[in-house]
Amino acid sequence: MNAFPAPAKLNLFLHVVGRRPDGYHLLQTVFRFLDYGDTVHIAPRADGDIRLLTPLPGVPEHADLCFRAASLLREHTGCRLGADIRLEKHLPMGGGLGGGSSDAATVLMALNRLWRLDLPRAELQALGLRLGADVPVFVFGRSAFAEGVGERLRAVSLAPASYVVLVPPVQVATATIFSHPGLTRDTPELKIPPLSGGHNDLEPVALVLYPVIGEYLRWLGRYGDARMTGSGACVFAAFAGRAEAEAVFGQRPEGMKGFVADGLDVHPMYDGAGSPAG
Ligand SMILES: C[C@@](CO)(OP(=O)(O)O)[C@H](O)COP(=O)(O)OP(=O)(O)OC[C@H]1O[C@@H](n2ccc(N)nc2=O)[C@H](O)[C@@H]1O
Ligand SMILES: Nc1ncnc2c1ncn2[C@@H]1O[C@H](COP(=O)(O)OP(=O)(O)O)[C@@H](O)[C@H]1O
């Protein structure tokens, strides 16, 4: 089997600037990948079957993003091949780190190569959007300022940073946060992406629904500018160096889970060409 990385993402900030007629929210956010994530092992199959060798607890096959990504690509291209997929899961589910979306993007890029489809990056991004609003950025492959629901992407260059990421013991359902009546949906649109500062409009709602996230934020906030990523539950703070981040992480109270990771500028499968992972 071939091993393909599926990195986590952080939303360095996330502003909700409006709402589409279909109810989806218009965002402005900066995505950054981390050198920490899942690994997807994939081998092509000649018989056309798509088999998940490691089903996730509580996720039926038809809802699994790896399965859905492979099936969508097969259907879209008419490819007759299949795949065995083994997911090595490290990222917490419902953590705001984009784990499921990243797995899906990695399956799209890996099968594009293994099935010799050669679809251009833009086409894979559009396919990815059908699986979730977070999937396109992983196919895009670079740190990005995102608008729309996350499909309008502009590459940005970010300063090197190490992050402490804490994982509160709750799984947040993204739809619950977005549908909350208390959500601020009218943050003024920015013309130029700020590379620092900003805030996360989803954070106050998540804190009301899951107070434990606030406890984690307050603890990390003693050491840096702590913020929630995506719809939560994970919180993070940036530090200039790895040693500083490790030192803060080392002081966490017993039982507080998380990890330290460096920010990446490009996705580990990014090859710079028009065709991803070609
Ligand atoms: C909030 C963000 C920020 O990066 O990340 P996560 O916290 O999920 O990692 C994303 O916008 C999440 O993207 P993703 O997790 O792919 O969400 P989707 O499956 O497309 O949507 C889940 C549900 O959330 C709501 N939703 C999602 C995105 C959006 N821009 N507006 C919405 O209102 C919709 O109700 C949708 O049915
Ligand atoms: N391969 C997958 N990895 C993680 N979650 C998945 C996967 N496939 C489907 N899901 C579903 O998607 C939900 C959101 O997962 P995830 O992407 O990890 O969180 P988030 O969107 O908060 O970053 C999970 O709770 C799970 O039900």
Structure overview:
The chain has helices spanning 65-77, 99-114, 121-129, 135-140, 174-178, 203-209, 211-220, 242-250, and strands spanning 2-19, 25-45, 50-52, 82-88, 144-147, 152-155, 162-166, 227-228, 235-239, 258-264. Strands 1, 2, 3, 4, 5, 6, 7, 8, 9 and 10 form a 10-stranded mixed sheet that branches. The protein is globular. The protein is of the alpha+beta class. The chain is built from 8 helices and 10 strands. It has a single domain (1-278), classed as 2-Layer Sandwich (Ribosomal Protein S5, domain 2), CATH 3.30.230.10. β3 (50-52), α1 and β4 (82-88) form a beta-alpha-beta unit. 4-diphosphocytidyl-2-C-methyl-D-erythritol 2-phosphate binds at residues 11, 14, 24-25, 27, 29, 96, 98, 101, 132-134, 149-150, 174-175, 178, 230-231.
Over the alpha carbons, how many angstroms does the gyration radius reach? 18 Å
- Helix/strand-derived category reads alpha+beta
Give the strand content: 25-35%
At CATH level 3, the topology is Ribosomal Protein S5, domain 2
Give the number of DSSP strands.
Answer: 10
Give the end-to-end Cα distance, rounded to a whole number of Å: 18 Å
- Global shape: globular
Main beta-sheet strand count, sense and barrel state: 10 strands, mixed
What's the number of domains? 1
Number of helical segments with 4 or more residues: 8
List the ions, cofactors and other small molecules found in this model.
Answer: 4-diphosphocytidyl-2-C-methyl-D-erythritol 2-phosphate, adenosine-5'-diphosphate
- The CATH architecture would be 2-Layer Sandwich
Average pLDDT works out at 96
Proportion of residues in helical segments: 25-40%
Name the poorly predicted regions. Answer: none
